[in-house]
Amino acid sequence: MPAEKLAFPGRNYLYAPGPTHIPVAVQNAMVVPMEDHRAPDFPELVKPLLRDLKKIFKTRNGQTFIFPATGTAGWEVALSNTLSPGDKVLIARFGQFSHLWADLAQRIGLDVQLVQVPWGEGVPLEQFGRILRADKKHEIKAVLACHNETATGVTSDIAGLRRVMNRAKHPAMLMVDGVSSIASIDFRMDEWKVDVAVSGSQKGFMLPAGMALLAFSRRALAAAKTAQCKRCFLDISDHIATNKDGFFPYTPSVPMLRGLRASIDLLLEEGLENVFKRHYRLAEGVRRAVVDGWRLDLCAAAPKWRSDTVTAIKTPRNVNAAEVIHIAYHRYNVSLGAGLSEVAGKVFRIGHLGDNNEVRMMAALGGVEMAMRDAGMKVKPGSGLAKAIEYYCDTAPGKKIAAFGSVKAPREAQVKRKSKARKNTRKRK
Length: 429
Ligand SMILES: *Cc1c(COP(=O)(O)O)cnc(C)c1O
Known about the structure:
There is one protein chain. The chain has helices spanning 3-6, 24-30, 43-57, 71-80, 96-107, 125-134, 158-167, 218-223, 236-243, 254-270, 272-293, 321-332, 358-374, 383-394, 411-428; strands at residues 13-14, 63-67, 88-93, 111-116, 140-146, 148-149, 154-155, 173-177, 196-200, 212-216, 310-314, 334-335, 347-351. The chain is of the alpha/beta class. It has three domains: 13-17 and 271-395, Aspartate Aminotransferase, domain 1, CATH 3.90.1150; 24-269, Aspartate Aminotransferase, domain 2 (3-Layer(aba) Sandwich), CATH 3.40.640; 400-429. The strands form four sheets. Strands 2-10-9-8-5-3-4 form a seven-stranded mixed sheet, sandwiched between helices. Strands 1-12 form a two-stranded parallel ribbon. It has a two-stranded antiparallel sheet with strand order 6-7. Strand 6 and strand 7 form a beta hairpin. The longest helix has 22 residues, at 272-293. The termini are far apart. Bound molecules: pyridoxal-5'-phosphate. Pyridoxal-5'-phosphate binds next to helix 4.
């Protein structure tokens, strides 16, 4: 770490699209003395947690799982518990995460039918439809889809993918990587008939990395009974056997479970639909800054692909995006997402998922403007900020609140105050 970093005043502004900023309530919930994970009252924590996790995945029929691991292990839990070596799976590669999932599938012995898609686009529905219709013998056992490709800021249409599978009358299981979508972008496990959904703790759940969160449909649970892929630590059957009594097959990270409790409480208190709306609004402000203010291109190739959790921004050809990231970090203490693999040096990313509000986005945009200027880009200072300010102010949900000084007490409060006054007069008599 360079010397300049050591004496940095103020806190680091974290805009990686994972890990994300941790809310104070979640952070505090994790600062607990160590607890006995076999204590008789431990199920009082675990059972409601597994149940409420279902609300986040929007499943009534499915079963949720918590593994002490990361999203990558979640991919492996999904595949190894439901498939057998040599089984064919269909997946499109359009970014680093869809690439890694396909790679993992191959490495654990599955037969991967890989569809190459330009980075900046998402799951190619029509092409998948053609492939599935042509698979008359139903050799494809599972369709894998990365709901939100974090590397390129692209969201795919999972409801549309389900329709395509139905239209092709194809019985393959549908498995979805929702690591950077679940708890921030609309996701409906039951409605979309998703068989396995994978998430992780350090994105929309606003926790440190270290938990893979999953949900299995009834059908996927049944497939687990005959799936032949080798598994031990990642076997859901050991979880099923112990979770039913509120325990885990091995030592869970109890502080993380306490944090997850606080995180789910925050999400449900705000309301999932409000969480999604907030993510859209914050993302839209960032996009206006990028497109209308800075006149830069998004990595997402068309508006329909634009992600509400992360925005990947292309730098002009003569500017190395890594330099913008480097300056932002070392000079301004702002952490941005890097361009990965095929888009390395070409894009930088602003993560806007999790515990964010308008002003935190303004800090991100301000930091990026400064870093871009220092990197020699011709960006008018304040140009992006101005577009974001206009958008955030014009669409603020609290707009109808009366100006300070002219707020009338709501009727209820007036009535209460009157009856209190009446009581007081009675007393005085
Ligand atoms: C972060 C991420 C992962 C990988 O999660 P790890 O916790 O780093 O293993 C997988 N898929 C997507 C879409 C992600 O954003």
